[in-house]
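Standup, Tuesday
Yesterday: got the pipeline producing structure tokens again.
Today: sanity-check two examples.
Blockers: none.

Example 1:
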Amino acid sequence: MASWVHADPGDRPVRLMIFYVPHGWPIEHVDPGGQGQGFFSGDVLSPLAPIQDQVTVVRGLAMNDGATNHAALPTVLTGFASGGEDDSIDRRIAEGLGVPAHVLGTVPYASFAGFTVDSFLTKHGGAWVRPTENPLDAAEALLGSLGSSSRPDDGPSDADFRREALALTERELEVMHDAVAELTAEQTKLSLHLEAVRALKAGGGGPNLVTCDEAPVLPAVDAMKGLDALDPANFGRVLDGHLEVIAASLICGTAQVVTLQNMYVNGQVPFDFAGGPGIAKGHHDPISHSWDGAGRTEFATCQRWFYERLYEKLVSQLASTPDPSDTDPNRTVLDNTLIYCCSEISDGANHNSDASQVWLDGAAHDSYLPAVLIGGAGGCLRTGEVIDVSGRHNLEMLATLGEMMGVGGLQLGGQTPDVIAEVLA
């Protein structure tokens, strides 16, 4: 019970998903320049057009600590070259909320070789984390506590138990509160306990309540039975399965902080797999390395495909589901979720990790790290805007993620970075 009462009474429920895609993006297919008009008009971010009022594009971000090129992968979520001394931000935020940090991966690699030094994105407990590769394993890890949909009705679910336990505790506290009416100090302490328990009953703050009585149906996950999650031919199926698991776990409250790592640096998955964009070339080289117009259009098609899957299998589900942990029936799960889309590279072909100009067909384009924020973050994010943060680094963005998730003032690498106030509501 004590672990449930974790945040200030009245806080809205919060969830964090980190969505990593390697090799950056072709900037001219993302940023049209000017005031940011056209971000959703048909290029990389166009799949997000239906919910663009809940999308914030952060323009001008650069990698911290001089990290650049693919060697910046460990810096993406730690803020420091080679990963620094601290855990990655997903783990730091999860610790602040008192919940686990889950790491899933659409990461086909030679099973006999395993991950290499340039493969790791997240660090937990001082060790780099290999993601869970198979959506079937992910479903068990994130949703297994709910049991199957065929669970016999011979006992209370976890959600029922929590609701009944909180109701019982509330009644007992009310009786105790009335019994010490003459003892002001004791009555004040009990009032605080009552407020916290009532906040938990209403939803919000700290670990979210589990709100599903049984595991949902997961067709994309079921489709993975008997398939090899490390086979590049199954790349699209694995991604859909992981997104399906994450969507269900965020809605049900069985997971609150989840990272999804798509490939890794130098990932050479051919993009002609089933359900993919139909480009029979390696994602790293030549797709992301292309300088010519035709090649960069292919790169844009591949990067847009990731946002298409993210929207269809996860974002649209969260946007259409009233938040069962929120007292306001008009707020959706997406309103109380923050999805952070990121990469280690700014412009794919240039292989830079800073905010600098890239020359294409004789014209200069301002490149910067991909940083796309989706959702309302529990009311903490300025949404529906393109925000210029030129001169800021990703370490400050990581601190800002903590601020929006209710874990402010984080020390990262022995310092307390400034938050990027421009993106806060």
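Example 2:
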Amino acid sequence: MTFFAKLHPMIVHFPVGLLTSGVVFEIYGALRNDEVAETAGRFNIRFGFWCLFPVLLVGFLGMISLENTDKFSDFLSSHMKFAFVTAGVFISAMLVARYCRKPWGRILYFLIIAVGAACVLTTGYFGGELVHRFGVSTQ
């Protein structure tokens, strides 16, 4: 097992927590007209978004070092697919927030970050299965 395969499960929780809490805070703040919660959520989403890229890189480097992936290849491919979809969804959210200032753009933004939260949790499910069911990066 290489360094990156062991490092990825340790550092991935930071952007996961930031993105998940950011979505919850930002939607809650918007619904309750709580500017502090909404601002905290917006900060967490943006910070979590930028933290995704080193974690994706470390995960990719860890993945290419794995051997005998036949028994968990379906879970690994699903984990990777949802990780990249998550990044794409949050890139879309950042673009909509930046360039679409119309009232419907705000609604679109909230729909996109809600989908992003579902993608984060789905990615985490497959990653957790890799670690806990198949013992990837624990040997």
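Quick observation on example 2: The chain has one domain: 3-132. The longest helix spans residues 35-64.
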